[in-house]
Structure formats: structure tokens, C-alpha cells
Fold these 4 entries.
Entry 1:
Amino acid sequence: MFRKLLSVSGFTLLSRITGFARDALLAWTMGKGLMSDAFFVAFLFPNNFRAIFGEGTINPAFLPRYAALQARGEKAAAAQFADAIFAWQMAAQIVLLALATLFMPQVIRLLAPGFDGEQFRLTVALARITFPYLILTLVAVQLSAMLNAIDKFWAAAAWSNLQNLAMIATLVAWHWFPNAAYAAAWGVLLGGVAQLVFILWAGAREGLWLRPAWPRWSPQVKEFFVAFGAVTIGAASVVIAPFIDTIIASLLPTGSRTVLYLADRINQLPLGVLGIAVGTVLLPEMSARLAKGDARGSSTAQNRSAAMALLLTLPFVFTFLAIPGTIMRAVFAHGAFDRQAASLAGQVLAAYGIGLPAMALVRIIASTFYARHDTMTPMRATVTAMICNIVLKLVFVWGLGLGVAGLALGTALGAWINVGVLTFIGKSRALLAIEQLFLRALPVSLLAALATGAGAWAGVWLLRGHGDIAALVAAILCGGLGYGAVLLLFRGRLPLRIA
């Protein structure tokens, strides 16, 4: 399992690196203002609808069933099931694309009520360019799930790089477009085409195909849609929170949506590379083990994943709390994105960081239920957390006057509420067991995180006055030394066995 995690994390890290280059170029060319806010709202559409109809539903509703068929050697039945689900997915996406294109002005008016005039018209135009990315990427999402189910993880982790590279290319050539926002939007669509071609090639190498057909009803499809309905509600609940962020941010000072996006991109680095990678590897493994009757092995894999998720994410929490302003200024305070905007983004990053471990643990704990084909329980937990999330944001932003940082803090605390609800239910049903290997690793993870944060702060203090980039480099070196020293001293308590 550890070897699979390294594969996913490695390619995801590459994706985050190209993503940073893309985001730095976005900040450089568009800054923090009308044009950048318009693009990030338009970019929200394919990304968040993908979370509803893509990974957010395909992984929990489709992957466990497909993986169970593969684990039992029923390859023909697995292929037939995949084709049936693909047919229904494509039919739904074609209808959604047509409706979204036709009614985009009304959707933007609802989503960003604070936009008007030129900003509103630009957002509508950009959203019509970016939205077709959704139908392209959903093919890649389903083929990725199929590859993960047969323990082929590299391609599913690698294909997201192509969108970043496409956007970098169009942003470099932005003078050929009406403005940089149009260049970025066309880069999104071009990236979707590149991702589709790549994943079709990767699937074909493993003998996996998705064959277009007319949607047909069957008992398997009915079972999928029962699960899909519950998962969609849960995924939609998760996506509602960012939409609420967009609505609230449109009512805050211009540039708030841009600051929120860039801070979240830094927060997503450890979450995507480490936290989500663990969940990606865990779900098919638990599903396959349970299909073979190995409940104990499934639980051990889950405990090892949770321990590793905390070991790998907690150091970032302490670092984001210790030096958030230095991080955001060093990465983004260039070109049109000034130091004041970067410092504000640092406050948002610190707030996001509080919820980082919970965002990783949610996927791991939810696998307890998804691997058993139970999609209703995670849905109920997610809806509960989402309601709390929205209430907290309203209190933080306007009740306590925290502004855009209050949006991030509401997201962070909402993630912890989700973890708490799922853990309580899992323990009460005797489905979730906290094993000794997790308890042994927890103190080491906390100590390593403390050493990392202290080292990062010391690195910034040592090179204060020498510029933010130099200070960040020193923070990374000092924090890394502290983290490595703790791991070396207590490596015997850590679940680092390669399997």
C-alpha cells in the first residue's frame, strides 16, 4: 500500500508544482481585481460540478462495485457495468451542458449577486468557455476509477498535470486573446481535451474501454443510482459550501474571491499530494479486502492510512499557522498581485490550515461505509457538517467581522464536524476500530508537526530582512530538518512498512 501511495503522491506532487506555476502566472497577469474574480467564478463551475458528478460520486458509488467485480475475477461483468454507467453519465452531461450554456447569465446572477456591468458580462462569457471541460473530464474520472480498481494508479494521478500545462501555455500567449482571463478560460478547455486523450491511451494500455451506448436500465444500474443519489446529495453539500463562499465573497471588497482561491491552492498542496492520495489508494483496497472476507485486513489498512495522513498533514498545519504571510508573499507577491493582497491571503491560509487534517481524514473514515456500499451514512454526515459550515461562515464573516478569513475558518471547522460525526457513527456500529498502530504513531505525528512549525518560524526569523523568498527557503530547510529529526528518532513507532 505504501508503494501505491508513493506513486499517487509523486504524480500529484508534480501536478501541484505545475499548478503553482499556473497560479503564479494567473496572479502575475491578472492580479487581484475585476478580471481575476470573474475568471475564478467561471473556473468554479467545471471544478465544482466535477466534484458532484465526477470523483465525488464515481469513486464512492461506482468504484467499490467495480472493484468488487474485478476482485472476484468477473471481468466481463465489470466491463458491462462500466459501460452502462458511462452511458447514463454522458446522457446527463449532454443535457446539463445544453442547459448551462443557455441559462448561464441567470446562473451567474444567482451565484455572484455582487457582480454587475462589465464584470458580470465577462464572467458569463468565461463560464461558457470553461463549462464544456466538465463533460471531457468525466470520461477521465471514470477511467481513472477503473484503473485504480485494478491497482494502476499512476495515470489517474498524472492526467491533472495536462490542464495546468495547457493553461500555462495560453497564459504565456495571452496577448493573442482579448485579455488574460480569456486566455486562462481557453486553457481550461484545451486542458480537458489533452486529459481525455491521455486517459483514453492509458486505459487502452490496460485493456480498459468505455463504449458509448444508449442508456439501458438493469438491476445493477438501479443499485448504482440508489447509491449515486445519496452520494450526489453528499457531494452537492460539499460543493454548496464553495458556492456559498463565492456568493459571500462577491459581497466583500473586490479581490476577495481571488485571495480565497490562491490561499486554498496552497492549502490543497498537502491535501492533494498526501491526504487525498491516501484516500485514493485506500478505498479500492478496502473494497477488495471486504469482497474477499478480510475485514481485519481492511481495518488495518484504514488505521495505517489514518496514521500516515496525520503524519504527513499535521506539519503543514503548524507551518501555515507559524508563517502564513511569508508563504503567500514569497509565492504570489509578484507582478499585479501586491504584498498587501498576499498578506491578506496569508490570514486566509492560516484559517484553512486548521481544517487540513480533517479534510484528509474525512475521505479515510468515509471509506468505512463506501467500501461496504453504504452511501447514505456519509451523505447524512456531510449534510450535517455543511449546514454547520454555512452557519459558522455567516457568524465569522459578519458577526465577528473576520471578512474573507472567516470563510476559510468556517470551512475548516465544518471539516472537523464531519470527521466527528462519521467517527461517532462508525464506532457506534462497531465498523470503525482504532488500532494500536494508530495510537502509537499519533504522539510522534504531533511532535514532528511541532518541530516543523518551530523550525519554519526560526528559519524566517534568521533571514528576516533578506526578502520573503529567502526567508521561505530557510523556513523549508529548518522545518524539514526538525521534521526529519523527529521521524528518525521515533521511526519504530511509525507505520512505514511498504506493502
Entry 2:
Amino acid sequence: MINRLFSFLIIAVVAASCQNKQDSNLNEKAVDSTGVVVKPAIVTQPSRNDTDDPAIWINKANPAESLILGTDKGDLTGGIYVYTLDGKIDSSRSVFNMKRPNNIDVEYGMNINGVLTDIAVCTERGRNMIRIFSLPSMKPIDNGGIEVFVGEKERDPMGIGLYKDPKTGIVYAIVGRKTGPDSTYLWQYKLDATANGTVSGTKVRAFGRFEGNAEIEAIVVDDALGHVYYSNETVGIRQYYASPEKGNDELALFATTGVREDHEGLSIYHTSSTTGYILLSDQEANRFRVYSREGTKENPYDHKLLKIVNVSAQESDGSDVTEVPLNDTFKHGLFVAMSTDKTFHFYRWEDIAGKELKVVK
């Protein structure tokens, strides 16, 4: 009798496992874009070496004059390429001769000695630093750079996400590296203005689970909801509080199945103050997986897979997105994805959204 009961339990477990796999496959098929490849509206002029990560800066006074910043990972001749919305390089603002700049992010309205200043911050991996530039001029305001992961054997900064606390206005840089220890893989720095108008950085916490054989590179911060997400390559997306005052408990681990190889670029499209989409690059598959920004009533950190979008960009490492209407081409927002042919691809949001996702009008 016991043996029969044991056999029955084994059969039930196997059946349930098979059913879960079938349900997962059905879900994948339900959200797949049936092989359609979305084409970009604009492909930028090529960079010199190896494009990696873009960031969108919105000119709030005149959105048509917004800029796309894109890193180029040359070891000695790398840089930050500045593109206009037609994909042309603005050489007067681009920054050249950097040592392997990796990821980049933008934040708005940092208080620098009474002047609210938009900033771009990138990692300069070849110098173990983060670099800070004012926007839109791209003038350096970091006194030559801020060293990160000081005292660590494992440095090599790669990923970066900026967080501006909505209550205090304090700006933080959350920095990832090529490799590092589990639970303290990322370091968070408070950015402060100095008397001479430059910006310094002070470490305020180390956090972040890591498992797998790859690395952590892509980081994105949701300022409004106070969350930071990062791609633990080959494992999934991890979610934490962005504020160092709220502790280091992991809130969620999702996107753990279906990715062909390497969880990469992350970006957030807002449909309201609390809703929208989290876009993840499934790098080797040349597609993006779209998850709900909001969770469910039962679990606020349950991010559902909503759509899979095939794109023309090849092996995309980094991405960014905005819902802000910019010009006649990008009336409902812009999605930018890096491509391995040394370019960045600019997509209309409505082309990414299709019939399955919302478009902010």
C-alpha cells in the first residue's frame, strides 16, 4: 500500500511538472510576435569601435532637440557619442578618447550649488571610474572622474543606474562591475556638489545577489516607484529598493525562463505614474521580452510576461525608452537599442507596442 501511494505521488509530481512546462510554453506562444521583425525608423551613423549602451536625454523645453547618448567601448579610443533624433553624430558634444566607457544613464535636475542641472553618468571601465557630464553641453563636472570599488580586488565598473529620491532630491549612482561577490556585487554612491561646481561621490551601501557564470551589467532605476532592477545574466532580473534607507532585501527575481542566452539591456516605459512595461534584451535571440511594470493584487512584485518583440538590432547589449512625444517621427515615444554593427537603432514605440501594449497619447 505504501509503495503504491509513493508511486502515485511520483506520477502526480511528474505530471504537474509537465503541465507547468506546457503552461509555460503556451504562455511563450501567446506573447510571441510570430516571427515578425520590427524595423527601426532610424539607424545611427556608426561609432568607431563597439557600441554598448544608450541613454535618452529629453529636452523638456523643445523635445525635438532631445539627444541620444551612446557609449563606444574602445580601450583607448572609446567615447560617448551624442546623436540627434535623425541618427546623426553631434561631434561638438561627443566625448572621445576615453578608456572603455561601458554603460550610461541620465538624471534630471540635480542641485549643483543652487542650479538644477541635468547630468549624464557613465562607467569608464579602463580607469575604474564613473564620469559625470552636464547636459546638454556634455561638459565634464567630475574633476576628472570618481573612483569606484576602491579597495576591492574585483573592480572593472560596467553597469550604472541613476536614482533621484523624489522626497529629498538626492541623486545616487548604482554601479555594477564585471565580477564581484554575492550579496555585495553592486555599490551605491551618493552624488554631492562641491564648492567649485563639480560633483563628488560617497559610497552609501553595497548590495545585490549574484549567481551564475556570467555577470551583472544592465541596471535600470524606477525613480517614481523607488525600485532598482538589474540583469543577473543567465539567471533573471532582480529587484530591490533604490533607497539605501529601505534595506537590502531582494523584492523579486523574475524572467528566469525563456531567455536564450544572456539577460541584458533593461528599460522602463511608463503608461502612468505606477503602470507600464519593463523591457529586457534577450541578447542572443535578437528580441526583447516585455514584462508588466506593476505587479498583481496578490503580489506587487509579480511581473508578468506580456509580449516578445523581435527586432532588427543584433545582439543588443543596452537599451532605453521614453513615452514622451519627441517629433513627427516619434509621436508616441522612442525605443533605442544597441546593435553590434556599431550603431544604435531608433524605434517608434507604437511599432514595438503593436496591438498588445499601450501607447501613451
Entry 3:
Amino acid sequence: MIVLKEQAPRIITADNEPIDILVVTRKLDIGGTERHLLDVLPRLNRGLLKVFVCVLRGGGALEDTMKAAGVEVCTPPWQRPKSLRIVFAAFYLLGILIHRRPSIVHFFLPEASIVGGLCALVASGATRIISRRSLNDYQRKHPVLAHLERWVQMRTDAMLGNSRAVVNQLRDEGVPSNKLGLIYNGVDVQLFDRLGSARALRQSLGLPETALILVIVATLIPHKGHVDLLRALKTVVCDLPKHWLLLCIGRDDGIGDGLQEEAQSLGIEKHIRWLGERIDVPQLLKAADIGISASHQEGFSNSVLECMAARLPIVVTNVGGNVEAVIDGVTGLVVPRANPGLLGKAILALASDPERRTRMGLAGRQRVKMEFSLDESVAQYLRLYSGLAKPDSSPLSAILGSN
């Protein structure tokens, strides 16, 4: 029996055998989906659930952390040549499906969904789940792969979104309602309570004690809106406090040099710190004053929830699940995407009003605690897997209590 607080269902199988869950993803690098899996999977891997992970590409920064948390990680032994890497990974996954015969296979992110979904159709009688964790804007650049992805998902037993915006797109793509479900990301609010004071954290991180600190957690890729943010700050720089910093946290996927040149051309480079990937994101958030998400597209952002859990008021763009998390004027401010002028005004509004920041930060933390807790997210996965393991499973919306 698995128990996770009172809301968790009891996992029952006909012969009391474990439910083997194989999770397939591209790579365990530092990213929103990967951190979500790291938060959730160790909490599921107990009792009658046995969870293990297969990555299509090895060497991710979170692989060892996942293993240390008690979750087996299977990695293809062949990483080169790059041109054949995905083919080797597919054969490796086929071998796992044939020899391990999991009860449920759950795919995260498009590459794993396409490659893994095709492999599972060929070699497995397992129940197949795909999680879409972003809006489908990426499909426009790859129409052939988009067609293949939709072909696979129509032959999948269950499709999950991490926001209503994503679920609605899946419905528009033709996924039947009885196969659709919603599981929000979840955050461990108590983690931020254990970090100590913002003042002590600033001292330990080498951040100025009296500066206004803004923070954005996003991979350095064009659609995350870093250029918009830099230009927004330029529009209000004369009205910001003399001492302010923007902390840019996230892996550089090729535009870092261009962003630094942009900051220099705008004359604000001395206020920007490019921190790259960090494992101390919670500490940095709690040491900051305002969180920002300037993205042009988003499924449901972990970083937005983490900012709120850290008691940060947050400025977000009106895309994807942002407006499902942030209540405009209550827990933060919502602005149109790709609009540096309005983004700058929203940042300045919070920068100029410490009491409003405090009020919004407290409201945001309470909202995360009540609506987007890690405990509830884990409980939803328990409901999902136990419901789909039954011989006559109900529609996904009935299993999860949402659609």
C-alpha cells in the first residue's frame, strides 16, 4: 500500500504485484521538466509502484541526483556518432520494453514522445501516456515531425497537459476528451521556509544587501523573452533605484553572447549578472525582490511557481499557463508578451512599492500552497497510475478529477 497524506489513493492490483512505471525523457539536464521529474518520481517510487527512467541521451546534470534519490536511470551506452545517436537510443529503448515489460510507459517532451511512442507501439503492450508540457508553437518549425507527433499521440492511451492552455490545444488537435487529463506542476513550499532569511542569503551569495534584485529563471533561448526584458529595463532605468541587479539564471543555448552585447548597447550591462545553470535556485529566489517571466510561449512554468513559493511578487507575460498561476493585481502583474514598454512599467510599479511587493508575495505563497503544492501533484500521479492500471479504467478526467 502507498499512502501520501490523506488524499492519496491506495494502489491495488489484482495479484498484489508491483506496477512497473517506465518514464522516458530526452535527457536529465537542468530544466523545468527534469526538475519536475526529480521532485515527483522519488516520491512515487515506493510500495506497489516501481518507477524507473530511460533517457535517450546520457550525461545530464541531474542523472546522478536522480539515482541518489533511489530512482534507477537507464542510459544508452552509445552516444556517438551523433548522426546515429537517436537510432541507437531507439534500439536501446526497444530492448528495455521487451525485457522489462513495464505496465505503464510515460513519455515527457516531444523527442521522447515521438521516438518512445513509436517504440512502444512496436514492442510493448503497456499503457502509454504522453505529457505535453508546452504550447505547440514549436511544431511550426518542424511540420513533418509535428505530423508524426500527432499521429503517435492519437494512438496513445492518455495525453496529459500541465496547464488548461495545453489541454485545450490537445483537444483542438483532435485528442478525444476521454484521453485528456491535467496535472499541474507542484512546488515544495516548505523548502523555501527552511532556507533562512533573505538578508543572510544575500550575504552568503555575495549579493548587495540593499540593492533591488530582480530575477529571471529561464534557458537562454529566444522565446523566453530576455531581449524584451533588457529593453524593458532600459525604458525605466532612470526611475529604478540607483542600486539594482537582474539575475539571469539558466543554461545558455546559444544566445548568451548576443544578450550580453544587447545589454552593453543599452548601457545596463553593469546591472546584469549572467549566472548560468545553478543548483541553488531556491536560495537565489528567496534573496530577490521581484520575479519575472518574459516568455513568448509557455506551458506551465515551474519558475513562476517557485517565485511565488519564495514570496516574490512576479511579473509575467500573458501566455500559456501563466495566467492560471498568477492572479493579476493580487499575486503579481500580467502583461502582454513581446511588449517591453508595458513590461518595464509593471516592473517599475513593483520596484516603487515595497508594501505592495510584500502583500503580493504573501498572497502568491498562499496560492501555491493551496493550489499548486508538490503533495497534490504527486497525489495526482498516484491517481493516474493506479487508475490506468485497473482492467476497466475510467476516462482520464474521472481518474484525475479534472479535464
Entry 4:
Amino acid sequence: MADLSQNQMMAQTYELSEDDAAILQEQLLSSLYQEISSERDEWVRARAQSGIETDWRKAEALYDGEDVSEDGGMGLEDSLRNGPASRSRPAGNRSRVRINIVAPAVDNQVARMCEILLPVDDKNWGIRPTPNPAVSKALTDGRAVQDVQGYHLGTMAELAASAQNTAQLACKAMEREIDDQLTESQYNGECRKLIFSAAKLGTGVMKGPFVVRIEERNWMSANQQIGGMAVVNAVMSITEKFAPASRAVDIRSLYPDPSCSDDIQRGKGIYECKEITRKELRALAKRPGYDPDAIRKVLKQKPLLVDVNDNKIDKSQARDDLYQIWEYHGEVEPESFQLLRKYTNRIAGDGEGEDIDPLQSFAGCLIIVNDVIVGALPMMTADNSLENHQAGW
């Protein structure tokens, strides 16, 4: 990480002017941008070097009925149909018509898996009360129970049956609530996308549950008196609510920590790359956790495209007017978190705070556009000491 100079560190112990504070904030953010973007570029390069992207392209070509051979010989589809190629080929020109046998097989498997895992007329999950041995034993206990004032409350069996019935009713109510939320978020449709990706490319990823904002518009009638006459007008009422949702994510847009090997849980985080328009980018400025000044800075720049060419990161201007937005979910290094906190505290006027212990773990979400952090939100910490501290804007 780019360290601050000694003069800058000494200047932090004194009260700075507004201009000096603005310069210091810009330097802090530049150091943080450089650290985060270099890590992202390393992860993007590592995935390109792993060879998994070549396997995905071959699987995509197979599904589309294309020849995936690299030496000009028989493709994998022909090998599946007719076996390995013979050493000698008959002379003469033969038909080169190819029948796609991979796509129907994949589609049939996807349909069968969806039929088993996602039934149309039933749910593939349910909620039941957790078995409690004490309650089960009390169902056969006929002893009377009284409160502290001596009033008779019933027998142990009656109280146990009442508690069990209350738990069952609560489970049914929660099951209906969850079922409504899954229906609104089109959960079964997203699961079908995941199954299709797993059958076609070998891996499927589901993101969630995360919170989405939903606007409900309802028309309500209102009576008004105009010129002594009663007039009924329709007034639109807009209510806002938050609900959980889950989405199937294209695996080609995910870049996990390369040190995780074959176990994703070993990695410290994951990057997700998506495309966003200028209109959507402006809308982010109104959401909590996003920095309007940083978004304003990005909108003044041309969209930056991050790609890998010859195992090197190539950053060029995108041909269209779509920005690449990178979402990082995972642990944030203590040094990076300290820079975020210094910038946040400088704005709030809360001072620099205490030094961060390297043993502490900080998890959060960083939103990056054009190598500029436009949003930062904390998720959780290992010791829950910062659960109420907003490590962003």
C-alpha cells in the first residue's frame, strides 16, 4: 500500500485548514484506490491464467454445435458420437454436416433437474417446530400448574400442548411469509438459470439473499367538494418496502480470491463485474452508502474497460456508454479499513481514532467504478466491535 509521507502523518496531529484537509482526503483515497484496484487486477489475471475460461468457451461452443478441436481434426462432439478418430481417414470428400447432440442432452437434463428440484404444484422446502424433549415429555404429565398467586393454570400436558400448537402456528405463518417473498423475487426462475449454468458450463452461482427496495403504487379514491358538488378523485399512493431477493449470477462475471484453490471458503472475498448505464449510476447517488462526489467524478470520465490480453491487464475506454461496476464482498485488510475510517472520520470531524489491531477482521462491500470507490458498506466484524460503525459514506 502506498504509505503516507512523514510530513503528512505529522500534519494529522494538528488542526488542518479546509484546503489541506481536502488534499489529505484525496491522497488517502488515492492510496486506497491503488490498493483495491491492484488487488482486483491480480485476481482477474489469475483467473485468466488458470485455464478455466478456456473450458467455459469450449463448453459454450459445444452447446452451440461448433467444432472445438484445436488441431483441425474431429471435434469433441464427433468423438462423443463415433468414438476416437482413426489413424487413417478414407479419401474423398465426405459430408461435413454436424448434428448438435450436446444442446438437446443439456436441455433434457436441465428440464429433468428442474422437475425434481423445483416442483410446480408444491414446495421443495418447509418449516417445522424444533423437537423439544422437555415438551414431548410434558405431554403425558397430568400434574396441575399454578402461578405465584395460586391460580390454577392447567395441567403440564395442557400447557405443553398449547406451546406446541403455538409453535406450529408460528411456523405456518412464517412459511407463508417466506413463500410470498420467494414468489415475488422469482426465486424458482433464478434457480432454473443456476441449473442451466451448472449443466452447460459446470458451475452455477446464486447470490443472496440481499435486500431490495420495492415501490408499491395503489390508487385510492378521495372525496372533494368543488363548487358545492361532491367529486371523487383517484389519488395514487406510493409506499416503499424492503424485501429479500436472490439472483443467479453469470459465473464469467465472478473473480474469486486466487488463493482459495478448490475451496471457495478459503478465500477472503470475491469480485463481481457488471455493466451499468449513466442513468443507473446517477440513481446510486441517492442510496445510502454511496458517495455522490465520487459518482460525480466518475460521470465526468469515459467508461473504463478492464480486460486481460496476453496475461496482462489492459485498461481502455469502452466503445459503448456502459460503465463496469465492480462489487467486492469479503474481508477488508486492516490497512485499507484504516484509510477508509480516516477519510470518514475526517469528514465527520471525529478525529483519527485508535489504531487497528492486525488480528481484527473486517468484512464489507466495496463498489468500484473506473477504479474509484463510489460506495462502501460494512457487513460484519469478527468481534462485533464495529457493528454500528459505518465504514463508508
